[in-house]
Each structure stands twice: as structure tokens, then as C-alpha cells.
Amino acid sequence: MSETSTMFGSPRPEFEHKVTAPVGLGDVAKPLSFAEKLGANPAFRRGVILVVLALTWELYARWLASPLTFPTFLETLQALLDGIASGIIPQRLAVTLETLVAGYAIGLTIAALFTTAAVTTRIGTDLLSTFTAMFNPLPAIALLPLALLWFGLGRPSLIFVIVHSVLWAVALNMHSGFLSVSETLRMAGRTFGLRGMSFVFKILVPAAFPAILAGLKIGWAFAWRTLIAAELVFGVSSGQGGLGWFIFENRNTLDTASVFAGLLTVMAVGLVVEGLIFRFLEAHTIRRWGMQSA
Amino acid sequence: MNHAQSADKAAAARLDAALMRVDGVTLQYKTPNHLVTATYRVSLDIQKTDRLVLLGPSGCGKSTLLKAIAGFLTPVEGTITLKGKPVIGPGPDRMMVFQEFDQLLPWKTVNANVMFPMLVNGVPREEARARASDAITMVNLAKFADAYPHMLSGGMKQRVAIARAMAMKPDVLLMDEPYAALDALTRRKMQDELLQLWQDVRFTLVFVTHSIEEAVVVGSRIVVLSPHPGQVRAELNSGFAQNDRGGPAFQQLTTRISHMLFDDEATSQATEPAR
Predict the structure, then answer these.
(1) Which residues in chain A have Cβ-Cβ distances shorter than 8 Å to B103?
(2) What is the pLDDT of residues A122-135, one digit of tens each?
(3) Are A100 and A227 in contact (CB under 8 A)?
């Protein structure tokens, strides 16, 4: 043994391997069984939860046997189907959605104008941050008495409170989205020769889209809740009431199953908008662009 | 400065050949507490088909100087001209490739990203499509033309950014440490590709780096800047074939530049307490 090998140990042998296919593992990829696939499907798992809930409801209500305070699931379903068949629920829903869309659209437009002013001028920034700080914590319903005074009983008052509930939440989200657009992306946009409005719409808006979409979702949720609550308070005044009024009316006639049917409709609309419309928007924009993981 | 004055005639002759001229440019920017002078009276000429490298340690203002050339900063003293016209703002005649990978528009495919600046600047759609397809093929990404940026590796994103800038056919292509965030193996490959691209197209390049080796590999002319504030320490000719890399002449130039940078630093540190 030489001196170096006693100092550092004997040199370790070198080798190169040939990579071979693994033997005895069976198939490298094999299809999952039907039960495994079913268990991996979130829609199926959530469906199971819903079925269990409905079953519990039915059993509890039967045991309680008091249709005035707590109708069974089947009675509620019947009331819902009757309401749809007689055209009352669709008609009330249409009234509500019409008001909602009008308020939502006006709210978004004002929010867009506000935010554009805020990203282009300093006074705009100050205005926006002061206004959102002041009005965002103010519940829209609290403005209802004032709205009644200004716009009278009817749709304009409802639209006013919806605009209030949408505007500040959306503007706040849009603005913070614009602020978080990276400096590199801004500089890249400017080297392309983009200025002013075209810079805002071609660079800032798409780059801030995750935040804008989050704002739209929050705005939608606020608007929907505010509207139903406002209709509950004075929905009849407009001549033809909405869903909130439908719930209120049926409570007065002690038709509790229809009250539940109205509540179910409110939930169903919320789910459809969240789960279908916004999900579709997300899948075709920010998730496709890799701005949000699936 | 003295040298420049004594070579007035030579400078005047070069003036005609210069595509871009940086003349006595002093740049300052504000931090919350300080007014920082980034460069002090920097002058240099960029000629057509130059591969001009701005090289220096951090704090020599090389990136700030590049931003001024791009038009993001206005010099407090001196002028920057492109084809005799002063630079007043960023524009598509000076396309820039940044160090950060997020310079691509994440909502557009590779192809749409490359086409975007052309469409914004009024190139007809058909022509833009053809130029984009050529540029993407040149950077070997034809297979990924319909991919979104988040599906690409860092090196591929930088290639797209280069393709996007080249397709615009700018007068000058500006690159701000474009390979600094890449791993060493990818970086080397990208340098070779850039040189190959230059062989094919002969564009004019201004390239910022803090790596002496990268400067010597990429540049045909190297401007060595000294730090605090940035001043031109030397302008050197480079230009090595790819297989010369690591050869004696290459080593000699590298050593010469590192002496300039490190010996100066030692001197300035030694004299600093006296000031």
C-alpha cells in the first residue's frame, strides 16, 4: 500500500452501469379500477354529501312532524316543483336577476372608471383609497333607508344599494391587482410602444386578471346577498316582487315549505354562478395562463 | 476625457458610422434617502452590427445606462441619439430583453407573444404571423409555438423573449443580463445560440453583464465601466470563434479585464479613507 492510499483510504473503484427495464414490477402503468376512479371524482364525493344531508333532513323532519316550522325534504321539493310549474318562482327569479344584472353592471362600470383614474393619476389614487376606506365597511343594507328617501320605493333604490355593495369591493381588488403587475411586464409593454389607455387594456388588465376575477366574485356574492336582503325588507313596492319577496310572502301565509323552496332557489342560483360561470371563466383564463394552479 | 479631445478627428469620423451615440451621459436616480449618481459623463458609440457589451461590477450603472438607452430614464447631462435623433422614451426601435422570466405575457401563447409587439405597431397580421414563425424557428422553439409561457423552462422563456425582440427588427437589440438567472450549462448554450443568430442576421446588440467570461464570449466590443459612479474605464475589441474559447488569447483578454476591475477596486479602497 502506498502512502496516499493509507492516508485517504484505498481508491474506490469506478463503474458505469447499463440501464435496463425493471423486472418483476408488472405493468409500469395500469388503469385504475372503477371504484378508485369514482373516489377520485370530487363531484361524486360532494354528491354523496348532498344525498346524506337530504336524507338526514327528511328523517329529522318526519320525526319532528311539524310542517309549520320544519317541512320535510320531500315537501320542500314538492313546493319547489309546484312553484316552478306555476311559473311563480321563475318569474320572481327573473325580476331579481334583472335588478341584479343592472346593479352589477353599473357597479362594475363605475369601479373600472375609478380604478383607471387611480392607476393613471395620483389624485385618482388618493380618491379611491379614501373612498374605499370610508364606504367599504358600510353595509349596503344600512343605506337602504336613505335610498328609499332619495329614489322612492322601487327598483332604483335596490339598484343603488347593489351598486354600493359591488363598487368598493371590486375597485379595491382591481386596484391592488394593477399595483401588483410586475415592473418587468410594465417595461416590456412600454418598449412595445404602448401608452395610456392601450397600455391599461393590453397590459395591466390581463396581467391583473386574477385579482380582477377575485373582485368580480366577491362583488357578485355581495350583490346577491344584498339584493335578497333588500327585497325581503321592501320588495313588494316595485309592483312585482323578487325572490326575497317570495320568501317573505310565504312566511306571512305560513307556507313554510315554499319559504324553504325560496331559500333553496337562492342557494341554487349562487351555486350555478359560482360553480359554472366563474369556474368556466377561470378555466379559460387564469388557469390556462398558469396564473392560478388548478 | 483628454484622450477623447485629442482624438477629435477620429471621433468625428466615427460619428457618421455610429448608429447610436451616447455622449457625456450622466444619470441619476432617487432612492428614498439618497440621490444616486449611477454614471458620470459616459460616452460611447454603437455601430451597426456591433455586439457591444457593457461590463462592470455591481454599482457601475451598466443596467441604468441600458435603461437610459431604452428610454426609461432621461440623462441629467449629455445626450443619447439614435440615427441622429435624441431618444425621448421607450419604443419598438430599441427592443429589450430583460433578465426576469416574467417579461412574457402569460395570457398569450409563444406565437401570440412574438406577434404582439408587431401588431401593436401596425404590422399587417399576415406579415406578423410569417415573421413570428421565422423568429420562433430561429430560436428552435417551433414545436412550442402554441404553448403558454408557464409551460416553458427558463431558457425557453428567454429564447421567446429574444425571438419577440428580433421579429420586431429593431435598430438596436438591448439585453439586460438576459442569462443571469439561468444555470451555467443552459447559459453557455444560450450564448452559443445568440452568436449563431448574429451570424445569420447581423443585428446590432447592446448586452449588459457582470461576467467577464460572458463579455469576452458574446461581445465584439467591450466597454469596461468602473463603479461609483460608472465611468468608461476602457473600450476593448473582442470576438473569438467558439472553439477559441479558453485559448491563450481569450485567457489574456480575460486577465487584462479582471486586472482593470479588481486592481482599480483595490486602489480605490486604499485611497478611500484619505478622501
Answers:
(1) 184-185, 187-188
(2) 888 888 888 888 88
(3) yes
pTM, full prediction: 0.74
Percentage of residues in chain B with pLDDT exceeding 90? 0
Cell of A184: 418587468
Output the CA torsion sign for A47, A49, A53, A59: positive
Å between A185 CA and nearest CA of chain B? 5
DSSP letters, B188-204, are: HHHHHHHHHHHHHH---
Residues from chain A contacting residue B89 (CB–CB below 8 Å): 190
Q: Where are the domains of chain B?
A: 2-94+170-274
pLDDT at A294 over 80: no
Report the Cα B138 to chain-centroid distance in Å.
20
pLDDT class of B1 with cuts at 50, 70, 90? very low
State CA B143 to chain mean position distance: 28
CA dihedral B69, B70, B75, B78 (to 10 degrees): 30
Distance CA B56, CA B144 (A): 36
For residue range B59-86, list pLDDT tens digits in order.
788 888 888 888 888 888 888 888 878 8
Q: Identify the pLDDT of residue B274.
A: 41
CA distance A187 to B161: 13
Instruction: State how far residue A188 is from chain B, nearest Cα, in angstroms.
Output: 6
Mutate to test the interface with A, among B100, B108, B118 (most CBs of A within 10 A): B100
Residue corresponding to grid cell 313588494 = A236
Q: Can you give the pLDDT at residue A28? A: 64
- How many of the other CB atoms lie within 10 Å of CB of A80? 20
Span A220-241, average pLDDT: 76
Length in residues, chain A:
294
Among candidate residues A91, A199, A106, A220, the one with its CA nearest the CA of residue A159: A106
Calculate ∠ Cα A163-A126-A175, nearest 5°: 55
Spatial distance between the Cα atoms of A206 and A188, rounded to a whole number of angstroms: 14
pLDDT greater at residue B97 or residue B268: B97
ipTM of the complex: 0.78
What is the SS3 assignment for B242? helix
Cis peptide before B229 (omega within 30 of 0): yes
Q: Three cell numbers at A77? A: 321539493
Which residue is listed with cell 371524482?
A41
| Residue type present at position A222 | F
B85-86 and B77-82 as β-strands: parallel, antiparallel, unpaired?
antiparallel
3-state secondary structure of B132: helix
Residues of A in contact with B105 (CB under 8 A): 185, 188, 203, 206-207
Looking at domain B2-94+170-274, which of 1.20.1250.20, 3.40.50.300, 2.60.40.10, 3.40.309.10 is its CATH number? 3.40.50.300
State which H helix or E strand residue B82 sits in: strand B77-82
Q: What are the pLDDT digits (tens) for B205-250?
A: 888 988 888 888 888 888 888 878 887 787 787 877 666 677 777 7
Question: Would you state the cell numbers that stand for residue A90, as one nine-digit string?
Answer: 321563475
Cell readout for B215 is 463579455
Angle between helix axes A256-272 and A88-120 (nearest 10 degrees) is 40
Q: Which residues are CB-neighbours of A210 under 8 A, at least 6 positions away?
A: A177, A286, A291, A292
